Amino acid sequence: MGETMISQVSIFVDNRPGSLWEVTQILGEEGINIRAVAAYDTPEFGILRMVVDQVASAKDVLTRRGFVVRITEVVGAELVDEKGSLGRMLEALAKGGVNVNYIYSFVIRGGKAPVMVFHTDDNEKACAILGEAKIRVVEAGEL
Amino acid sequence: MIWSKEETLPRGQMEQLQLGKLKESVRYIYDRVAPYRAKMDAAGVKPEDIRELSDLQKLPYTVKADFRDNYPMGMFAVAPGELVRFHASSGTTGKPTVVGYTRKDLDVWLDNVARIACMGGASKDDIAQISFGYGTFTGALGLHGGLERIGASVIPMSSGNSKKQMLFMQDIGTTLLVATPSYALHLGEEVREAGLDPEKDLKLRIGLFGGEGMTEPMRAEMQKIWGKGFFCTQNYGMSELCGPGVSGECEALTGMHVNEDWFIPEIIDPATGQVLPEGQSGELVITCLGKEALPLMRYRTGDLTKLDYAPCPCGRTTVRMANLFGRADDMLVIRGVNVFPTQIEEVLLGVPEIGPHYHITVERIEYLDMMTIAVELIDDRLLDSYGQLDELEKRIQKRMHDVLGLATKIKLVAPHSLQRFEGKAKRVTDLRKDGL
Fold first, then answer.
1. B349-393 pLDDT, tens per residue?
2. Which CATH architecture has domain A74-142?
3. What is the C-alpha separation between B359 and B348, in angstroms, rounded?
4. Is residue B436 assigned to a domain?
5. ipTM higher than 0.85?
6. Chains A, B: CB contacts under 8 A, how many?
7. Can you list the alpha helix ranges (DSSP code H) found in B95-161?
C-alpha cells in the first residue's frame, strides 16, 4: 500500500513577511517544482505543507538552508469534475471512521483532473475506503 | 512617627554602635561559617584585624554564587534546631537561595519592617491589605509581621484575584495596600473599570510598595489612579539580607533610609570591586550586623544606587539610598520576582526539541509584566500537527512556571532565526519604560 502514498514536505515557517517566499525561492533555485501547497492562518508560526516533484532534494536543500523539514505520507485522490465529488470522498472517509486532519488541493496538474491531498489518522485505511468507493487514489509516480 | 531611637542617632554614636556590632559579627561568622572563614583566610584577614569601621574594606565579598555553592544551608551559622523559619528566593540556576532565621533574627527583622511601615506613614489604626504572594517569598510575611507589630490589622490577601481584592477594600475598609507598584497600578485600573472612584468609594490612603523599583512616573500615575490623597512609598530588601526592612522611603521622599544599626551599606564599582566615595553611583554592598542564622559580610546585592548622608527633614539621621538605577548583573525583576536568565537557560537545555539559543522580551501590558521567551524549534517530528507544537509550548511554559514561579509566553521560531553573538550574548530586550 505504501507506494500509493504521496510524500509531503512540511516546513516550519515564522509568521513574518517573506517567510513563505523564501522557501519557494530556494526550491526554485534548485529546479524543484511545487505541485500542491497549503499553510494555515496562525498568529506566530505556520507549518507550510507542500507536494513537490523531488522530495529528497527538497528536504536536503531546505535543511541545509536552516529549515526544519519533515517528510510525511499523505493520500492523493482524484476529483471527478462533477457536483458533490469532494463530498463523496469525505462521506466515504467519515463512514469508514477515518479522521481527516487536513486537506488541500494541487495547484498544477497539466490538464489532468484535480487532486485532493488528505492527511488522516489512518492513511492506509483511507486509501482502501476511497478505492472501495471507486474514487481514484493517485500514486506517487503519476504526479 | 519614628519607631526606634536608633533611627535618629547622631553620626558618631551610630558609628560607634556599628563598630561594636561589626567586631562581634566578624568574630561570629569566622567561628561558625566555614565557607566565609576560608575566604577570610585566603584574604589574610583575622577577626582581630577589624579595629575601626574602615577596616570593613579588608573583608572579602560574599556573592550570590556562595549560596549556590553551599546549598542549601552551608552559609548558616546555627544548627537547624536553632531556626524558627525558612524563606527562599530565586537562585541563579534551578536551585533556590534558602535563608533561615532564629527567633532573635525574626524579632529584629520584623522590628526593621515596623520602622519602614512607620516611615511610610502607617499607624496602628491602619487596615493593611497584603497583596504580595505569600509562600516562601519574604515580602508578604515580612510586611505582615512588621505591620502587626505597630498594631495595624492585617488582611493576608496574597496577590491576584482582583475582584476579591476590591471586595475586601470596600467591605472591610482597607486603608493601606502592600504590593508591587505595578500590581498596585493594575489593581487601581481594575477598580476604576469596575466603576469605583477610589477617592469616594474606598478608604485606601497609603501604599507600601516593594519587590520591584517604583519610578517617579509610576508614583505620579499612582496618584492619578488611586486619587490625590493617596500617598505611597517604596522599600527595599532581599531575602539574603532578611527580606524587606533593609531600607525604606520616609514621608519626605528623599531616598530610602537604611536601618544602619543592622545594615552597613557601601557602594563599589561593580567591575573592579573598588569602594567608591560617598555620592557616587555603583553596586550596593551590605554587611549585616548581629544576624544569627545567616550572618553576611559585604554581600554584593547587584543593585545599582548611591548613598546620601545629608540630614533628612523627617528627623532621621540614617543614610539614604537612591531609587535603584538598575542591576550590575543580568537579573530581571518580573512581577516582583527575581529572574536570572541562567534559570531560563537551564530549563530550555532540558527540552530536546528546541535549540540552545533563546531571546527574552519583557513588556508591561496594563501595568503587568509579561515575559516572552523565543526559542528555535529543531525537531522535525513535531511538524505532523499543530497540536504537537502547541503541546511543546505548553510543556516549556509549565517547566518555566515550576522553576520561576511565573507565567511566561513561549514563542517558537525557525532555527537560525535568533541573533547569534560572538562574546557576551544580549539575550534580553526590556521594553518597560519608566516602569509603565
1. 999 999 989 999 999 998 999 999 999 999 999 998 899 999 999
2. 2-Layer Sandwich (3.30)
3. 11
4. no
5. no
6. 47
7. 103-119, 138-149
